[in-house]
Amino acid sequence: MSLKVSSRRHLVAQSEIRSMSIECARVGGINLAQGVCDLPVPEVVIQGAQDAMDRGTNIYTRFDGRYELRKAIADKQKRFTGMEVDPDGQVVASAGATGAFYAACLALLEEGDEVIVFEPYYGYHIVTMASLGIKPVYVTLEPPDWGFSAQSLEDAVTAKTRAIILNTPSNPAGKVFSREELGIIADFAEAHDIFVFTDEIYEHFVFDGHEHISPATLPGMARRTITISGLSKVFAITGWRLGYAICDPEWALAIGHFSDLVYVCAPAPLQIGAARGLAELGPDYYQSVSDDHQHKRDLFCDTLRDIGLTPHVPDGAYYTLADVTSLPGDTARERALYLLEKTGVACVPGSAFYQGAVGESLARFCFAKEMDILEDAMQRLRSL
Ligand code: PLP
After folding, report:
1. Which stretches of 152-299 are assigned E, i.e. beta strand?
2. Checking CA distances to 8, which of 179, 327, 356, 372 falls within 20 to 30 Å?
3. Where are the domains of the chain?
């Protein structure tokens, strides 16, 4: 029999997140495993997409997205980070941040390259690279502030290192990289002449006065930094598949051509909806979404603390990692399943975010839920 799946097939076996979601559905539980925010989509975004469909904007767009969207992204980037971005050449709209990241890996990395990744990590970064034969090399962030040293980066580097990836604010730890930490990364990237991939999909969710800083804005970093973000989280449109990369025009053209190859373009009318949202929603919108997440973070972390699952309180994004060693079980998965069985609340075993054993003591909860659902989840957890 010569028919068989490819040798990379095992890499995309069902993720812990999906498998917990399936378990959760089986017991009719509350799913705090998946990173899906169920806040309402801003009306202007919906209306913009509907108008676009009505007007007949239903065909392929330019490979890097419609001008309205690229311009709105460039303007927003300038407004929030001060970055000067040319909408014609430096912005590639793609099928989510996921599509933008995949296209960037295809465009800029080779099989056999090594890329430094901080752990706890976002699994898609790892599997995307592994599926292209790129080797992730891990630098472990140390709680409570998820810090790292310049030496830990040096220890990870080899002659094959081509890039470092960071995610700020991060999933799952909610770490917001400080200017000082980004300075260490910038010096390191410069010294070894490597790319910096930065996933900033949670850029608008930062708490307690922390500041989101785009690494590309640090001195000397513009050319080597690939800034990746998207609209999934900030407009609660994870199913629309709209994200983008911002970078030097040379890289952007290559990323755009791979994005075209795999996705052709992001959904045309939805690009218009997102562009309208970016152009018309003011600072109040972004602040109110962030405040809402912060309020939920506080309530949820209090609940975890009260039931003995000590949370690592996040500075950004909308997840919290908690210590689940007080639950019965030998692995994070056994503990997460116990919690689901006893309370009907699903979380993600920490092993989904770590190579080694550290993850076995942790679980990740997503608190970006509608208030009544979150309250129900907290009440169920308190019954533990
Ligand atoms: N990057 C990170 C760090 C995420 O946590 C997620 C979703 O959970 C994504 C990217 C996916 O973004 P998109 O929906 O734009 O593909």
Report:
1. 161-167, 195-199, 225-230, 243-246
2. 356
3. 9-41+284-382, 43-280
Atom of ligand 1 nearest to the CA of 167: 3
Q: What is the pTM of this model?
A: 0.97
Let me know: does 329 contact 181? Beta carbons within 8 Å: no
Give the ligand 1 atom nearest the CA of 229.
Answer: 15
d(CA 115, CA 166): 11
SS (H, E, C) 329-367: CCCHHHHHHHHHHHHCEECEEHHHHCCCHHHHHEEEEEC
Q: 9-41+284-382: what fold?
A: Aspartate Aminotransferase, domain 1 (3.90.1150)
CATH of domain 43-280: 3.40.640.10
Q: Are 80 and 234 spatial neighbours (Cβ–Cβ below 8 Å)? A: no
Instruction: Please check whether residue 355 is in contact with residue 120, taking contact to mean a CB–CB distance below 8 angstroms.
Output: no
State the residue for tokens 């598949």: 241
Summarised one tens digit per residue, pLDDT across range 283-328 is 999 999 999 999 999 999 999 999 999 999 999 999 999 999 999 9
Terminal-residue alpha carbon distance, the chain: 52
Count of Cβ atoms closer than 10 Å to residue 13 Cβ: 9
Cα–ligand 1 centroid distance for 199 (angstroms): 8
